[in-house]
């Protein structure tokens, strides 16, 4: 018989989860008391939070518990990297329906643990509640190693715009799943078919976390993680810094090629792939600006340059306004 | 026309919330970037998280947005105090239905801000999502000021058991509201009727936050915040420390008297009041153990003593097992 969350009390459920969550180097007091204690060697810590709600941020028919654990960790860890920090500790609040399989929760914990361990971080505490649908709330913490945090507001005219991580894969994977042109199995860890990179990119994003501290060390003047699409997130740097961020379409050609098999599987052309690259969210790559002449850290690709805002901070592509909003016009026309 | 959450986009809603949240002394980088930066002067921080789900932890027909903001802050802040820490920073995840009034969200932010400001803490970041019911997830952080954290596991035979804060008021208020014997208005900030302390105690608990660092300074050997009732939470110290926690019923007489008007309003006797004192949750007082001879800090009342566990850690009342579980038998018999 399938074991359900309602078959266990909170203590019993926690006893199944805790052993799946290894402690980290910064964990001084881990789960089990009123609060955890975490090391903050440079006298500050970076903190951010993200909430995932079932059927708004993920669907259980597409994402396994493991996938949701990886995704919840990844999108939070990327926020620490985007400040130039290294992730150290997470606390996790879970709302769980009574009929949810316990194996789903265990899978979630394993996904969370795997993504945290790869990043050098650990889950140090959490809270369980009943809920009508699955809710995941993560607060993530990191260490700046003595460096100044890289904000969104430091981009200056003349800076180079660069990006680390995949571009558009998550949006392509979502489009494939939505259209029924791919199944979640196509993105399973063991899958190797032509659609695997897109579906996996949607289910289990892998932000380039090392790129954050590397960009800070290279003198990055502004940085954020791309959660809502290149155009929209570049617009956030533009507004916070009072500049124009100009992207050069030619620099995106390899990304468009990378997405070509997904576009073909959907009967779409290269313009669909370009739309994914410019407007697709949830890849959680790092978009940063660097002083002219800076050596870009490994993993970063130059995408354009920063120009004076002239009182109208905005994003341009090859010097022109992206046609009709943040790019989905490519699907309309 | 009533303004609803769905009438605003996320940026516009955040623009209504942020001005209501003053920065704190530890806030180095506040809301608006990928993450906040918070001071951790002693090279460590304490962190805990709690999730509140509508209709499981609060009802909107009883609790205003302001009430839920105060409650969400209070129960989290108490976890920091229970480690001996002083709260510094919170991040808050919100799930909001589209038809929720914007004024409810603004009230929530004001309640959160008021409770945080009283505690010397500040909201430094957050995340908004849509949801079918209101969800609140808080992660709270604090500073230990160089002291060792007070865990649940340090109680030793011979220690004094003591408590700071109200006992049973939240349970009495919940019972009054559930029975229709009181209305939320009886607990409004301006209310002064005989039932006001109970209803207010349920709607807007006020944990004795200063008691946490004071207890640590006085040498407290174990401590936690009472969220699930004196008996149940004393049992957690007993099990973590491998001891017997013996409560003396006579020490609870003033608390029982304090609840007498609520019991009378419900046609109940003093045994109902004793049940609220022993088993009522969500007062978020601090239960601590101190070495024999220690001077109890202001606000703490001696409730009993710690005895050797003899391989069977447990809670006793006047040396005997509490009759039938954690106390609700008082309602049954």
TrEMBL record, chains A, B:
Residues binding Mg(2+) 2, per UniProt: 50, 79
Gene3D superfamilies per the UniProt record, alphabetical: PurM-like C-terminal domain, PurM-like, N-terminal domain
Annotated residues for binding of Mg(2+) 1: 49-50, 127
Region (Disordered): 307-333
Keywords, comma-separated and alphabetical: ATP-binding, Kinase, Magnesium, Metal-binding, Nucleotide-binding, Thiamine biosynthesis, Transferase
Residues engaged in binding Mg(2+) 3: 34, 79, 225
Residues at which Mg(2+) 4 binds: 34, 48, 79
Sequence positions that bind substrate: 57, 282, 328
Record GO terms (molecular function): ATP binding; magnesium ion binding; thiamine-phosphate kinase activity
Function: Catalyzes the ATP-dependent phosphorylation of thiamine-monophosphate (TMP) to form thiamine-pyrophosphate (TPP), the active form of vitamin B1.
NCBIfam families, per the entry: PRK05731.1-4, thiL
Family: Belongs to the thiamine-monophosphate kinase family.
Extra information: Reaction mechanism of ThiL seems to utilize a direct, inline transfer of the gamma-phosphate of ATP to TMP rather than a phosphorylated enzyme intermediate.
The protein's name in its UniProt record: Thiamine-monophosphate kinase
Source organism (scientific name): Xylanimonas allomyrinae
């Amino acid at each position: 018989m399938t074991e359900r969350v309602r078959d266990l009390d909170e203590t019993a459920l926690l006893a199944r989860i805790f052993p799946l969550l290894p402690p980290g180097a910064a964990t001084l007091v881990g789960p089990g008391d009123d609060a955890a204690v975490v090391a903050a060697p440079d006298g500050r810590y970076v903190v951010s939070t993200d909430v995932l709600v079932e059927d708004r941020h993920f669907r259980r028919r597409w994402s396994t518990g493991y996938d949701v654990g990886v995704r919840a960790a990844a999108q939070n860890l990327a926020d620490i990297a985007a400040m130039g920090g290294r992730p150290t500790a997470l606390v996790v609040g879970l709302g769980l329906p009574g009929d949810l399989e316990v194996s789903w929760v265990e899978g979630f914990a394993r996904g969370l643990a795997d993504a945290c361990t790869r990043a050098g971080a650990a889950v140090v505490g959490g809270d369980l509640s009943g809920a009508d649908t699955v809710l995941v709330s993560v607060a993530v913490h990191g260490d700046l190693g003595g460096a100044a945090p890289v904000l969104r507001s430091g981009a200056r005219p003349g800076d180079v715009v660069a990006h680390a991580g995949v571009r558009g894969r998550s949006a392509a994977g979502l489009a494939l799943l939505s259209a029924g042109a791919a199944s979640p199995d196509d993105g399973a860890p063991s899958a190797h078919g032509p659609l695997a990179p897109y579906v996996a990119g949607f289910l289990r994003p892998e932000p380039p976390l090392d790129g954050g501290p590397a960009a800070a060390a290279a003198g990055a003047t502004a940085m954020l993680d791309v959660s809502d699409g290149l155009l929209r997130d570049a617009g956030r740097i533009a507004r916070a810094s009072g500049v124009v961020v100009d992207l050069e379409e030619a620099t995106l050609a390899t990304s468009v090629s990378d997405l070509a098999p997904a576009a073909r599987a959907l009967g779409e052309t290269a313009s669909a792939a370009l739309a994914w690259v410019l407007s697709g969210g949830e890849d959680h790559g790092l978009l940063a600006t660097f002083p002219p002449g800076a050596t870009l850290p490994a993993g970063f690709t130059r995408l354009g340059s920063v120009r004076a805002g002239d009182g109208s901070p905005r994003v341009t592509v090859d010097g022109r306004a992206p046609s009709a909003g943040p790019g989905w016009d490519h699907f309309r026309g």
